[in-house]
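We were asked to recover a plausible sequence for a given structure. The inputs and outputs are reproduced exactly as logged, with field labels preserved.

PROBLEM: sequence recovery
POSITIONS: 425
GIVEN STRUCTURE:
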């Protein structure tokens, strides 16, 4: 089996997101329209991500004029749109078009929530291969990519200058030992969550699911407890054991502690994602960004790549028009305009070298990190990984279990849940 490692290079034209895609933190949903308004024959209801609607307003107006249609846009947290569609779709109040993270696509397809798209090769060809692959299930296309993201290193320029930045995780470990005193810290990361810890586990040879020769994921081949993953977990554990990470960063709410420490100037560097560019800027933090550090084995930390997409609801009363809208809103012109407003770097390959994108330090950092990152699996079985993996990492972080035993238990739980919920799929 090919292990869960798809590498991406800047030279291949990868353009990546500067705003939460996949799997990073966001605020609660904020509807900007009437959720209960039913679609009509000459109307489309579009669910956009929160605080991102401004990026497509002009494109919507143009689409309305060219197609003699009214498009109603509602902003909702994109990671929870599928949850709302399960209820609103059958009730007739759901969207024609929605946006979602790629790791939810497999589940959405299995549940019959989104439609297959009839997208020709030429249209598919404008996007990066990795982003387009994230929209496919068994070779069929179920969305078009709008943006891609991965985590990176944020550092406070007032606490550490660029020329002093460690280039390895071991270097940050040594730096933190000389800085951490219970109130101030060096390097911080939410390593008790698999979304962040995978950058270490995968760098040492761990993986979520193996891959078959055709590139599809094999949910029976789970690699988060192999020798490499255990080695990575043991390395993670020493940051907690030696008090280099505060106890308060364990658990989902730990990200709030990390962000607060960084904003307050009490942490020199943290691992986070593009979604924090705007908040840190507004908070007045004098920060810089870089790719993630190298590991002790000489390999770079390998973060997840997540893809955001536009998709057509299976409940749409205007599926052909909805699909036309998805192609239109995701094309090169509109993707570039959306980036300029929202700072979500599009997945359109030709824009990877566009000055409007390459002049951004954050875009450069994400693009550089993409060379070492791995695509987040989009099969339904991925849903069974998060909780058991996080639970294992938390017991490792708190010293309640040794890495091998904790990860073995996680895999056993994941396999049991896959068997119970996905048998025969």
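RECOVERED SEQUENCE:
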């Amino acid at each position: 089996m090919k292990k869960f490692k798809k590498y991406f290079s800047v030279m291949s034209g990868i353009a990546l997101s500067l705003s939460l895609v996949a799997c990073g933190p966001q605020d609660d949903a904020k509807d900007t329209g009437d959720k209960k308004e039913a679609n009509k024959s000459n109307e489309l209801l579009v669910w956009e991500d929160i605080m991102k609607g401004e990026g497509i307003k002009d494109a919507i107006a143009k689409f309305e004029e060219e197609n003699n249609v009214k498009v109603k846009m509602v902003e909702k947290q994109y990671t929870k749109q599928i949850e709302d569609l399960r209820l609103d779709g059958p009730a007739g109040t759901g969207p024609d078009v929605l946006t979602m993270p790629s790791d939810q696509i497999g589940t959405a397809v299995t549940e019959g929530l989104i439609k297959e798209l009839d997208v020709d090769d030429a249209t598919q060809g404008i996007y990066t291969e990795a982003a387009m692959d994230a929209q496919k299930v068994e070779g069929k296309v179920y969305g078009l990519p709008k943006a891609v993201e991965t985590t990176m290193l944020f550092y406070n320029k007032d606490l550490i200058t660029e020329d002093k930045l460690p280039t390895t995780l071991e270097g940050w470990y040594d730096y933190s030992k000389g800085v951490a005193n219970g109130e101030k810290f060096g390097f911080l990361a939410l390593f008790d969550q698999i979304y962040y810890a995978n950058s270490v586990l995968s760098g040492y040879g761990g993986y979520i699911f193996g891959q078959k020769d055709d590139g599809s994921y094999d949910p029976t081949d789970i690699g988060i407890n192999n020798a490499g993953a255990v080695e990575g977990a043991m390395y993670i554990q020493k940051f907690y054991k030696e008090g280099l990470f505060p106890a308060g960063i364990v658990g989902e709410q730990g990200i709030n502690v990390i962000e607060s420490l960084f904003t307050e100037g009490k942490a020199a560097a943290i691992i986070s994602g593009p979604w924090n560019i705007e908040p840190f800027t507004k908070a007045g933090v004098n920060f810089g960004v870089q790719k993630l550090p190298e590991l002790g084995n000489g390999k770079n930390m390998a973060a997840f790549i997540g893809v955001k997409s536009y998709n057509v609801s299976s409940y749409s009363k205007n599926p052909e028009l909805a699909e036309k809208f998805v192609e239109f809103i995701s094309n090169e012109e509109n993707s570039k305009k959306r980036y300029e407003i929202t700072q979500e770097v599009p997945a359109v390959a030709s824009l990877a070298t566009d000055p409007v994108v390459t002049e951004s330090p954050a875009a450069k950092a994400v693009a550089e990190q993409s060379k070492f990152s791995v695509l987040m699996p989009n099969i339904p079985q991925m849903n069974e990984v998060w909780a058991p993996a996080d639970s294992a990492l938390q017991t490792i972080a708190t010293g309640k279990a040794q890495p091998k035993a904790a990860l073995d238990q996680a895999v056993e739980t994941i396999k049991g849940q896959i068997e119970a919920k996905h048998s025969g799929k």
